[in-house]
Design brief:
44% helix; 7 helices; four-stranded antiparallel β-sheet; alpha+beta; Jelly Rolls; single chain
Amino acid sequence: MDARFRLPDAAWQDFSAAWQPVGFKRKAVITAAGEVERYLYFVVEGIQRAYYLAEDGTDVTVVFTYPPSFCGVPDSLQLQTPAHYTVEALTASSMLRMGYQQLQDLMDKHRSLERMVRLATAAALYGVMHRQAEIMAFSAEQKFTTFLQRSPHLLNMVPHKYLASYLAIDASTFSKLLSSVRI
């Protein structure tokens, strides 16, 4: 584990004791757009996706989560404002969750935990900014090959229409790339 994310024993004991197990069936909504995110989730098993519903009714996949990662709508959780995204379980999912107030209380109690959450948020923001640049500047083939380098296991686990949406390419283009790009 990265040393920046290590916690002193007392903080780790409190942090690890705060998580509660929860399960979701395939296609279950974990957080709906318009709701305030009340939990921080940690994915133990399964694949989830967050998506935005466009005005024309199409959904645009923003991110996939899978073990070992955090899940939820981070801006809604941290700001306690309505979520702009829906998070759903693509597969049956086992997670751990911690309530917003419990997380706040732990961060108030342990400065090291607050620092860890701040650094994790900064790392997530880094990833979002990097991905935004990819979406805007990369060709369809570059997006596809970059995705295959980063998350090849999702190719056989997630419906291709969601992968195409995530990559911001047309489903037919995704299909052509799938058959033409060497994997």
